[in-house]
Amino acid sequence: xxxxxxxxxxxxxxxxxxxxxxxxxxxxxxxxxxxxxxxxxxxxxxxxxxxxxxxxxxxxxxxxxxxxxxxxxxxxxxxxxxxxxxxxxxxxxxxxxxxxxxxxxxxxxxxxxxxxxxxxxxxxxxxxxxxxxxxxxxxxxxxxxxxxxxxxxxxxxxxxxxxxxxxxxxxxxxxxxxxxxxxxxxxxxxxxxxxxxxxxxxxxxxxxxxxxxxxxxxxxxxxxxxxxxxxxxxxxxxxxxxxxxxxxxxxxxxxxxxxxxxxxxxxxxxxxxxxxxxxxxxxxxxxxxxxxxxxxxxxxxxxxxxxxxxxxxxxxxxxxxxxxxxxxxxxxxxxxxxxxxxxxxxxxxxxxxxxxxxxxxxxxxxxxxxxxxxxxxxxxxxxxxxxxxxxxxxxxxxxxxxxxxxxxxxxxxxxxxxxxxxxxxxxxxxxxxxxxxxxxxxxxxxxxxxxxxxxxxxxxxxxxxxxxxxxxxxxxxxxxxxxxxxxxxxxxxxxxxxxxxxxxxxxxxxxxxxxxxxxxxxxxxxxxxxxxxxxxxxxxxxxxxxxxxxxxxxxxxxxxxxxxxxxxxxxxxxxxxxxxxxxxxxxxxxxxxxxxxxxxxxxxxxxxxxxxxxxxxxxxxxxxxxxxxxxxxxxxxxxxxxxxxxxxxxxxxxxxxxxxxxxxxxxxxxxxxxxxxxxxxxxxxxxxxxxxxxxxxxxxxxxxxxxxxxxxxxxxxxxxxxxxxxxxxxxxxxxxxxxxxxxxxxxxxxxxxxxxxxxxxxxxxxxxxx
Length: 770
Description:
Layout: H1 20-25, E1 40-46, E2 52-58, H2 60-63, E3 68-72, E4 99-100, E5 106-112, H3 115-122, E6 126-131, H4 138-143, E7 154-162, E8 176-184, E9 196-201, E10 207-211, H5 216-227, E11 234-238, H6 253-266, E12 270-273, H7 276-282, E13 289-297, E14 303-315, H8 321-331, E15 340-349, H9 363-381, H10 385-392, H11 412-423, H12 425-437, E16 442-454, E17 466-473, E18 479-483, H13 492-504, E19 511-513, H14 532-559, E20 566-568, E21 572-575, E22 578-584, H15 585-594, E23 600-606, E24 612-613, E25 618-619, E26 625-637, E27 643-653, H16 660-679, E28 709-715, H17 736-749, E29 755-756, H18 760-768
Parallel strand pairs: 1-12, 8-29, 10-11, 14-15, 18-19, 27-28
Antiparallel strand pairs: 1-5, 2-4, 2-6, 3-5, 7-15, 8-13, 9-10, 9-12, 13-14, 16-26, 17-18, 17-23, 20-21, 21-22, 24-25, 26-27
């Protein structure tokens, strides 16, 4: 029985991961492991100039190179010569006269007998171009003196307007008004497995694409459009995927397209797998965002007004920027009940690497800003930092900064309360004060952050927010599940199996969740935005509930009792009035087969309708919200600027904990990834638009040595439309970390941190400032 008094058979239990054994033993099949007879290998030749007009392409030397089978250019594109699931500004292959928007724009695809030969030949593709002055700075891009696409660099501009939003009037009744400016830079996804795809022409004379990806449907759409063929002629199968973090949402399309074009022309399987250096240069990153805040409060700490203006760097192409930056505008005012809100978020083109999806989707950058302001306000008013968040936090009956009335219980305030208790907050503060009094050159600091996260795609993504599942019970009692969501290391397969086990009663060891395949499940959208448990989970639940009706009918007939009397037990069905009268799950499956009762069903879950005013940015932004609170203890060496995160207290409202071990793993992994963003991960460009950060020698990410001690509190405030009340955890696990760490460092040094990552050079400068 869980803490809410509900008896679950499987939900909330600690179980081994479904695919864990294969991964530990090295038998899982990743894209690099797959080989097909007569396969060619693809490499990409890029423009290698940040901004210009392409005049001509010369591929003769590349074609004549050893092992080269062919070199494809724009003339080999039979369909639409464009990529981009949201913004179609990304040519599959540049043609003369096209604008070059960043150094990684494609000019040719080389097919050769080995990856090495393909890469060598790609370097021999020559282009002639007219170079144009580039723009690398977002403030310069906003001025539109150098325009990259169309007639302005400003591709997106979103607003949130609530209450009195006139900047001249909204702060009139405030006792204290504070302002601040913040900058959050790039972050690289740094997944274990670089991008990779294989395209083949299969037995049906159609295309099958295998790949490491988050959204097979984006790949299906993109390949079909570029090849100019029906969607039904493109089948996409996700291979085992070694991490993604948003970087394999739309980006795999940009590598599936080259492979598919080569396979189409040569009628041979084509494989394109990036090495780490190529992956860093050619894939999207987290958006750098500059934000300016103005916050007005009462003398006791209640927020009355908040104004924010933020600019996001989209890079050379739009990719998913409109979606990412819309999430930024929704979350920019924080997880608080605020009467007057005015937010403007702009997305601008620059001649740098394109930015796109990354775990948190534009939220960590703005939460860094708003949570820094909360600490500044608390300091100015001499109010406890957890208390000021508690009195402003959302609860049932309150409205979010976008005016979304919360009509269900939520766990926002409980996460704060639980973390106050778990950390022994008052005593912890005293211990830190005592430590700092006794140490001159090493200081400790405590940081707090409180966040919310809109689960799934929200009001602006409703057309994509649905997911399907296909569930089949075999005559030996085993269960097979197909979902549209993907497993990429987060534990989705185990969560789906637990949901099926809860409904049907079969042991999780008898359940297999297959790799996603577009031939079996309709377009279920991307595996992003912490939506898999809610959407794929509900689809599995709906399918299993249909199967349960069939199996109860068969069991009732065998036991000669009314169907209404049948109860699902652990691996069995029994008569409610006579529990000794039972029949095993396996036997019911066999009987169903004998009686020609097909045990297969589909489930389809779509988002409830959300009401949203696009012009004002007002209304129901998301179907539900997850909440989290972090308290972080850090230690700072005042001479070397070395920062060590010692301990983390993390409280998360997950709705319902279905896969408990999976939740703990997500909280720990997400925090450490956010810690990398806060402290270590710096991406640098040269003055020609090339990334100087080319591999893990120059990109520092956290290792096991930097892992802090964790104390985790799981809050369950069930969501009525979630499977058993579940919401999401994947992204809320990361989002509070950078803000809490920055606040902790600020507390330790006694000065405000205003940019992340907190590099040693920057931190030493702040420490030394008078």
